[in-house]
Design brief:
- By secondary structure, this protein is α+β, with helices and mostly antiparallel strands.
- The chain has 2 domains: about 60 residues, Gyrase A, domain 2; about 35 residues, no CATH class.
- Helices cover about 35% and strands about 20% of the residues.
- The protein contains 3 helices and 3 strands, in the order E-H-E-E-H-H.
- Strand 2 and strand 3 form a beta hairpin.
Length: about 100
């Protein structure tokens, strides 16, 4: 039987997670269609190939486990110091970062 689900996911990161899980390369084989429509994700699937419980569990998991948004660096000097370490470029300073010149 062909089943349909519509789930509203307000958080764009969670929505991207759900889309990746249900429409990406590792999606369950029973998924027939899956697309975002604003904050909603609409999908159809064959329940003989993918159990409804699996689809519901994937939606629940992907909306619950969303990485938190965190500020990367408090200021340009801290960003420059991190970049200098990562690039093994000790002369790198805030004057060489574009973020220093942005409002």
């Amino acid at each position: 039987m062909i089943c349909a689900r519509t789930v509203v996911v307000g958080d764009p990161l969670a929505r991207a997670n759900v889309l990746e899980a249900l429409a990406g390369p590792g999606a369950p084989t029973g998924i027939l269609t899956c697309a975002a429509d604003g904050n909603a994700i609409r999908l159809t699937f064959d329940d003989e190939r993918s159990a409804p419980e699996l689809i519901d569990a994937l939606i629940a998991i992907e909306t619950a486990y969303v990485p938190t948004r965190a500020a990367l660096f408090p200021d340009a000097a801290a960003a420059a110091a991190a970049a200098a370490r990562g690039l093994a470029e000790p002369a790198l300073d805030a004057a060489r970062l574009i973020e220093t010149y942005l409002p």
